[in-house]
Write a structure and sequence with these properties.
By secondary structure, the chain is an alpha/beta fold. It is 25% helix and 25% strand. A hairpin with a 2-residue loop joins strand 11 and strand 12. Helix 5 packs parallel to helix 6 and helix 8 crosses helix 9. The model has no long low-confidence stretch (mean pLDDT 86). Bound molecules: thymidine-5'-diphosphate and magnesium ion. Magnesium ion binds next to helix 2. Keywords: ATP-binding, DNA damage, DNA repair, DNA-binding, Hydrolase, Metal-binding, Nucleotide-binding, Stress response, Zinc, Zinc-finger. Pfam families: AAA_25 (PF13481), Lon_C (PF05362), Zn_ribbon_LapB (PF18073). This is DNA repair protein RadA.
């Protein structure tokens, strides 16, 4: 008797499936992300595979580092761990409009210019649109680039796989984006978990057999209408996220997973009207955004999930307008936390701000939830109150308690590494607890100022 394929519900955010629908995904906690998908038939016979044999090797054999394909974009190479690895798969995720296609088109052209046969497949834009972008970026003038770069607009994975298998000449293939790709034999729509997984699986399998480096572009979605890059994270060798605020110039490429390199490397770019420009010295960009040496600003060495990020915290104080309570306007931070810090600064450090309106802003449109930002916020407030700018090359982090004591926060080493990476030369951080301290040697090029109480910061 033929079994009817059973329905199952798949979370479009994390990819886990359940037999019953629910409003909230049990696995990742996201709401309204479960959609119905027909289960793929799994009845595959394994009996006749028993005669197959594994090839095993000794652990002490020769081990060569993987060869690298230089992308000619130093910041991209850095995040990759030294360049693209042949037969590997990189997933580049990010919000729509952040610049993924721009970055990949620039990388593709640079690779073609150095003689690699590259295929760029867009499922989102027509060939004309890509040409217009390339013209705007000035990428369409070099003969070698034009000869080595193949452009196609397609969403049909069958077609893509067929051509790649037939031509067998490409060393790098870019798919923009995996969520637009479609395989004929899968029933669900493009962008569903089943399609995204099956398309990625076909392309990855081919990359491994033919040996080309595969770059998959994936949109990060909050609505859950499209399967997010998270459903692919375990299938690929490296995952990088392209981040930034569309209202701002800077963009950061960050590795979230990398089988061939470190995951705490970042690549910094600036979006200009002629495309993405590499920023080898990112502190220059941050300082340029800081508009010089003005009071009321401090740099916070923070963490986003497991990833370090440096942010500028801005504070503005003005005499209270009118009779009512003073204004506490906060963008990107917690108002209750700000009120607590103001109370601590008042009671423990004698900084009288009760009669002032306080505006606090995390520049760049980011939102900070970490208590570790307390010290940077305090530094920005003290700086605004005293009219003295903080050192432009110093970063702050540490949690502040109600008695004004500065407390330890997690991942000091990671924060310091990022601070150095971004070109800062000093850090103001919590005093080390003598016993049980696990902090390793600080990275070279940074001086540490350990603070035990907020009054030290005021001085
Ligand atoms: P895009 O690469 O299309 O984003 P994604 O592929 O991540 O969706 O980038 C789109 C944005 O970048 C668009 O809003 C315009 C801007 N942009 C520039 O500022 N300068 C440029 O040279 C280009 C090509 C795009
Ligand atoms: Mg795009």
């Amino acid at each position: 008797m033929a079994r009817k394929p059973s329905a199952r519900y798949v979370c479009q955010s994390c990819g886990s499936s359940t037999p019953k629908w629910a409003g909230k995904c049990e696995a990742c906690g996201e709401w309204n992300t479960l959609t119905e998908e027909t289960a793929e038939p799994t009845a595959r016979k394994t009996g006749n595979l028993r005669s197959a044999r594994l090839t095993t090797v000794r652990l002490d054999g020769e081990a060569k580092p993987p060869p690298r394909i230089n992308t000619s974009i130093a910041e991209f190479n850095r995040v990759l761990g030294g360049g693209l690895v042949p037969a590997s798969v990189v997933l580049v995720g990010g919000d729509p409009g952040i610049g993924k296609s721009t970055l990949m088109l620039q990388a593709t052209c640079a690779l073609a210019q150095s003689g690699h046969n590259v295929l760029y497949v867009s499922g989102e834009e027509a060939v004309d649109q890509i040409r217009i972008r390339a013209q705007r970026l000035g990428l369409d003038r070099d003969k070698k680039t034009l000869d080595s770069l193949d452009l196609a607009a397609s969403i049909n994975v069958g077609e893509i796989v067929g051509s790649l298998e037939h031509e067998r000449k490409h060393t790098v293939v870019v798919i923009d984006s995996i969520q637009t790709m479609w395989l004929e034999n899968i029933e669900s729509a493009p962008g569903s978990v089943a399609q995204v997984r099956a398309c990625a699986f076909e392309l990855i399998r081919l990359a491994k057999t033919l040996g080309f480096a595969l770059i998959l572009i994936g949109h990060v979605t909050k609505e859950g209408a499209l399967a997010g890059p998270r459903v692919l994270e375990h299938m690929v060798d490296a995952v990088m996220y392209f981040e930034g605020d569309r209202g701002h110039q800077f963009r950061i490429l960050r590795a979230a997973k990398n089988r061939f390199g470190a995951t705490d490397e970042i690549g910094v770019f600036a979006m200009t009207d002629t495309g993405l420009r590499e920023v080898p010295n990112p502190s220059a960009l941050f300082l340029a955004e800081r508009r010089g040496n003005i009071a009321g600003s401090a740099i916070f060495a923070g963490l986003e999930g497991t990833r370090p990020v440096l942010l500028e915290i801005q504070a503005l104080l003005s005499p209270k307008a009118g009779d009512g309570a003073p204004r506490r306007a906060v963008v990107g931070w917690d108002t209750a936390r700000l009120n607590m810090l103001l109370a601590v600064l008042d009671a423990r450090c004698g900084l009288k701000l009760a009669g002032m309106d306080v505006h606090l802003n995390i520049a760049g449109g980011m939102r900070v939830n970490e208590p570790a930002a307390d010290m940077a916020v305090a530094a920005a407030l003290i700086s605004a109150a005293t009219g003295t700018p903080t050192s432009p090359t110093a970063a702050y982090f540490g949690e502040v308690g109600l008695s004004g004591e500065v407390r330890q926060v997690s991942q000091t080493d990671l924060r310091l590494k990022e601070t150095v990476k971004l070109g800062f030369d000093s850090a103001i951080l919590p005093r080390r607890v003598a016993a049980g301290s696990t902090r390793s040697k600080p990275p070279a090029g940074i001086s540490l100022h350990e603070i035990g109480h907020l009054t030290d910061l005021v001085e």
